[in-house]
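Format notes (please read before filing issues)

Several people have asked whether sequences and structure tokens are stored in separate files. They are not. Every record keeps both together, in the order shown below: the sequence lines, then the token lines. Line labels are part of the format and must not be stripped during preprocessing.
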Amino acid sequence: MRKIHPDAKAALAGLLKDDMTIMSGGFGISGIPSLLIEAIRESGVKGLTVISNNAGIDDAGLGLLLHTRQIRKMISSYVGENATFAKQYLAGELEIEFNPQGTLAERIRAGGAGIPAFFTKTGYGTAVAEGKETREFDGEHYVMERGLFADLAIIHAYKGDHEGNLVYRKTARNFNPIMASAARVTVAQVEHLVRPGEIDPDHIHTPGIFVKRLVLCPPDFEKRIEQRTVRKRAAAAAAGAESQA
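Then the structure lines:
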């Protein structure tokens, strides 16, 4: 099967439909499948349920799909950087299923492993546990969480080969690996495409069996930085001079 496609639109051809469930990798806007998100926006599909750690920011990532009102429901952990998200939620226009971050990660991992549900202490006795089954094990209380599995997973990787084997880099190795195994179809955008055999098998994070389609990021692909937290050059230089005095 040929997995490489010329662009994001071609990579998603025939996979998108209204009211589907999509997993979208990334943490903040690090490691987000931005090309694939833009292709989804251009497709016009609506009524989407999106599983993602966060909802991007107002002008990047999943924030683009919120602006066009293509998302009906978000299953997320953190959404504090997106004013559009907050506005739609408070207006009753967007449904939210909040999860503790570790619980969300485990729900995705469980879905990929074929585990329908599991018990965790996290959230017991809080609003997170409302309407969910609880049990006591060895004197401790737990809440049951369901595994998550999507129609489509869109992910970003640093490197991939023609067989779909993927390698992630630093912070971008976040929700991407677990989402790759938790959907009927996984489509990946990669920064670097290499020939089969060029990736050391011990360095592969996601085996190609999980990845159905690939698209190579263009040379001018931009990786946004959400918040810069470095000091100004003058301040840094002054601090360095003081430390040497």
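For reference, the curators noted about this record: The mean pLDDT is 92. The two ends are 64 Å apart (CA to CA).
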